[in-house]
Amino acid sequence: MSNVFHGKKLCGKSFKDQNLANTNFQGADIRGVNFTNTILTNANFSYTISGTRNYVRICLVLVSLLLIAIAGIISTLGGDFIFPEEGHFISNAIILVSILLFLSFTHLKGFLAGLCSGIAVFIPGLALGWIISPLPCLIEKIAKASVSGVIELPLIAISYTIMTLATAVIIVLLESVPIAICVAICVATGTAIGSSANLGIKLSTFTTPTIAMLASYISWQALVGDEKFVWIYKNAIFLASVGGTNFCNSNLTNVNFKGAKVKGADFRNSILTHTNFRQAKMLNYVRPGKTYLQKASVCQLLITGQGQEKNLDHENLRGVNLEGANLVDASFIGADLSEANLQDADLSRAKLVQAQLKGTDFIGATLTGVYIQDWGITTETKFDGVRCEYVYMRLPTNENPDPFRKPDNNKEVFADGEFGDFIKPIFDTLDLYHNQDVDPRAIAISFKQLAENHPEADLRIVGMEVRGEDKFLLRAKTAATADKSQLSAEYSATYNEIKGLPESQINLLLAEKDNQIRRLENMVMTALERPNFYSSTQIQEVGTMASNQGGFSVGGSVGGNVNNVQGDNNRAVQGDNNQAVLGDNNQVTQQNQVGADTGETLTKEDIVKLLAQLETLIQGAELPADTKEEVIEDLNAAKNATDKEEPNKKRALDRLESMTETLEKTTKTVDSGKQLWTVAKPIIIKVAGWLGAAAGSSLLGL
């Protein structure tokens, strides 16, 4: 790591668009430094000082004080109308109540609520004053007071807004709440007294100190995270960060900000993966943009590493660095922890239900007692050296207080390394959830279409599960490289679209599909009727659903697995007219399989259909145009030679071999060729066997 900037004073310098990876800035003064678009991966910013330079900060404080003084004059002018010399008691009372309501509701509910409440009282009260004033002189007085009220309420609102925002800016710049508040109140009050003396106003000076005190309190609340005043917080940070340290669009992956003073730093659009903010100062005074630094609670967790019993449900924590953090009993339900650094963190009894954990680093973490229901782990999630004695597969509910502990025996615990073996089978599964009014027909059609659209995903059904009365889970195994997020989104869109179709159109879709759609539909209906039929989370393969051209093509491959046939006396019969019945001694039988391992079971029509299926796969693959044309030409020739009254097997085999050589070469240069080869290979072997290829030939030895 380069030490060229260690402890240096770099105020105002620009490192825009530079590559400063692994650079050491430890203890440097980086106020006003421009790091826009800079690569800073693995850089060390520990104990640095960020923010605005001294002269800029002084100018901003003076401008804020000037704004407070202007607000004091405005509120004084507004206060002049509360007790006009010739006003009427009723109208004066209405105006005063409007002001009090405005201030009260602003404090309790926010600025907009306060303004609306003031107007809501002022207008009806004004109309009432007109109605109950019978004498012309009273009407004239009320009219004057009414005009003054129309002017006065906006003046008070404007002065309050300016004071609040300016005070918040001073708090950030001076880094002292008491000093900033005292200065703001004194400036506002002094201005009010001075302007009152010059204008001859006596009673109006009451309003300005009151507004100044309330504005100061609201400013403080906004800066400590009160969501009612988030607009004040954002604008105050924006103004106080003018000329500050700029990390916009920079890459801060693995950067160390330990103990750094980051006030006024601009992190908009920066990459903050595994960035270390432990013991950082004033992290809530940065411009976060859309990063995970938006939430004050998250900033506090990053600073202290203390998240015990914290509720972080549905938070965006993607890429956060919580290495060694105390997260005991914390709740991360539905949170995005993808690519987060949780090394050596203590997550005992934490709720990771439906948490997104793609690429999350759990190396050395403690996971004993965690709730892992529907958590989104992938092959990229790291579990090396995890300490875990047991986990719970479900959250406990009133209906089901048993949270499904694993290991099942409460006296047993996972030995070293066993937890990794336990979760390995669910790394590559796609979980498709269905809530309310589950439609087996829509499920069958949607999954069929998904498998056809993505043969490279190699989708295979491995389990079904009913949860409660209206929730259904279809679990499918996928290729390790499959994008499960994309597959899930596409399936959901198709499923919802089909569910919304009229009955006639759904029946038409079913009529166009093959028998295997009906089989999958029947399986779903069976699972819904018998919830224990497909219910285990530890799925064991018990059978294979073979497919033919008229069957259910799963992932474009010749077969897909149907697993987890559970319950007493199960029997899964595959082929035409599939049944799933309860009976002793679980069995799996196969009938009418196309593409079985022995060529004798195939007919000429079967081979032609398999070649047509192969042609569809090749047409849909992203291959070079000349390669695709050559392959299709050989394939068509093989199909024509086969589809004769007396098939010319030798000619068909020659062209099939030529096509195979071309495809095999493509796998070495084109990624999509590799995916196609994986799917096409089993089909080619079966066709070659039927055409008479010798057992030791290159085709059957693929």
Which percent range describes the beta-strand content? 5-15%
Q: How far do the termini sit from each other?
A: 50 Å
**Structural class determined from secondary elements:** mainly alpha
Assembly form of the protein: single chain
Globally, the shape reads elongated
Strand adjacency order, main sheet: 5-7-6
Enumerate how many helices there are, as a single number: 17
From the alpha carbons, calculate the radius of gyration and give it in angstroms: 36 Å
Mean pLDDT: 75
User: Helical percent range?
Assistant: 40-55%
The overall strand count is 12
Biggest sheet, in brief? 3 strands, antiparallel
The low-confidence parts are: 81-88, 132-136, 531-600
| Helix and strand sequence | HHHHHHHHEEEEHEHEEHHHEEEEEHHHH
Key features of this structure:
12 strands; mainly alpha; three-stranded antiparallel beta sheet; three-stranded mixed beta sheet; elongated; 702 residues
Task: Write up what this structure looks like.
The protein has 17 helices and 12 strands. By secondary structure, the protein is mostly helical. The strands form 5 sheets. A 3-stranded antiparallel β-sheet has the order 5-7-6. Helix 4 (136-174) crosses helix 7, helix 10 (440-453) crosses helix 13 (515-529) and helix 14 (604-620) runs antiparallel to helix 17.
